[in-house]
Amino acid sequence: MSFIIAILLIFSSLSSSSCAVPLSTRSRWIVDDSGKRVKLACVNWAGHIQMLPEGLNKQPLSNIAKQISSMGFNCVRLTYATYMFTRHGHLNVGEYLEHNKLTLALEGVKKHNPNILNLSVWDAQKAVIDALGSQGVMVILDCHVSKPKWCCNDNDGNGFFGDQYFDPQDWLNALSTVAKRYINTPMVIGMSLRNEFRGRRQDQNVWYTYVEQGANLIHKKNPNVLILISGLGYDIDLSFLKKKPLNLNLHNKLVYEIHRYAFSQAQYGFWSNTSINYMCQKVAQEIEAKSGFLRGGRQNGAPLMLTEFGIDLDQNSQPDTSFVTCLLAWLAENDLDWAIWSGHGSYYLRDGKQDADESYGMFDGTWSKVRNPGFHTKLQLVQQILQAPFSTQPMDRVMYHPLSGSCGMAQGNEVQAGDCLKTSVWSFNGDGSPIRLKGSNQCLKAAGEGSPVVLTDYCSGESSSWKLAPKSMYQLSNGNGLCLHFDSSISNKVLTKKCIVTDPDYVKLPGQESQWFVLVQSNTK
């Protein structure tokens, strides 16, 4: 338990800095009211299934809010259902749980949050938002579904305008109500139009019509909030905006959102049996083609936020591990805003089972502990602002090992993989140049197969020259074919070993992730 508390105290420093709300956008960045960059490092909290945010049967609300902040998250993407605001808004929480025979939920809420029971579902949501705000945690309200239920599949009736439960006017009415309701709640900093458009009805022309109506309506009713817009195909595809941009004037409030999982685009099996170098390059290119282009140039881009990604934190499967290693490398390299799925560790009811576990949850099933501390540590670097775009400070490099979540730290004449909060800072001028330790004349040198990499003043030989290995995004190789390598089961030191490369490049070989080091650009260290 003391280890968990120590971890939480370390991460709490990441979320303690305040910002001046409301937020706006400036090119591809989100900024506060003073013009300073804000990076949203968020956790998803489901509130759309029973119209009550999950977990209030497990811990006092104040404890949950404190824990979220302590884990280093500065915002929550809080989901809701359209019907909550158009049909069921005045339902009493206690009566609703009792009527639906959610006995375990009812007993737990009575024990931990008895004041919630006599509230309407609207006011219960507001109580959650206020509790988060008291801890400095901002909220993005996400319209997840229309009919309250688990999401998502192509035939669930919630996927696209005109589906069984997805009435466009009902949806617009809900957006209007939510926008007006929270206009004087400054910690509600954003609203998303809709989660994961999908299904056979998907149509670009219809998408343009209603997305423009919805975005303009929110901005009219509440000009303070950021407006998050998702694309088609489960929040994967916004490529059609290359030919026809949205006709919006949101006064620097527009943010695009995307989702990504190992199973996205039916790719789960490929993460299992294909080289991670090949898969990661393929997925990164796919993201750039379908949405990454929206970041654009310095003047005409817009923020792109990854509002859902995650893995099964109980199984730690090889495909999930490869996928999330790739995604964290990409996130760090591009310094995007993001939201992990999920924070919640359980559901009141899912698939007919009360108190169902959520293995993707950052909380465990008791909502009192971090489910997977090792994965939590992997988020440490990407929770930080790495690029301050309006600063005059030069860009340096952080040596990030995404498989472990560690960063390269100079210790004596060697390099150890350690805490990304107090990492060493490096410089690197591209292929064939040395990797230099900032503030010294020293650089990295390969001492031989299986030996720790060393710091040396001699920086002109092959052993001190580094470039990317063939057909690899992140393996750093010297002139002798040795790559930086870290395996925490062997040592806390960064070694050099023969580069694990394949020909052809899609053939899977184990261990490539151990040799991934991303030299992340940063001017904030």
TrEMBL record:
<dbReference type="Pfam" id="PF00150">
    <property type="entry name" value="Cellulase"/>
</dbReference>
<feature type="signal peptide">
    <location>
        <begin position="1"/>
        <end position="20"/>
    </location>
</feature>
<feature type="domain" description="Glycoside hydrolase family 5">
    <location>
        <begin position="56"/>
        <end position="342"/>
    </location>
</feature>
<dbReference type="GO" id="GO:0000272">
    <property type="term" value="P:polysaccharide catabolic process"/>
</dbReference>
<keyword id="KW-0378">Hydrolase</keyword>
<keyword id="KW-0732">Signal</keyword>
<keyword id="KW-0326">Glycosidase</keyword>
<dbReference type="InterPro" id="IPR017853">
    <property type="entry name" value="GH"/>
</dbReference>
<protein>
    <submittedName>
        <fullName>OLC1v1029898C1</fullName>
    </submittedName>
</protein>
<dbReference type="InterPro" id="IPR035992">
    <property type="entry name" value="Ricin_B-like_lectins"/>
</dbReference>
<dbReference type="InterPro" id="IPR001547">
    <property type="entry name" value="Glyco_hydro_5"/>
</dbReference>
<dbReference type="GO" id="GO:0004553">
    <property type="term" value="F:hydrolase activity, hydrolyzing O-glycosyl compounds"/>
</dbReference>
<comment type="similarity">
    <text>Belongs to the glycosyl hydrolase 5 (cellulase A) family.</text>
</comment>
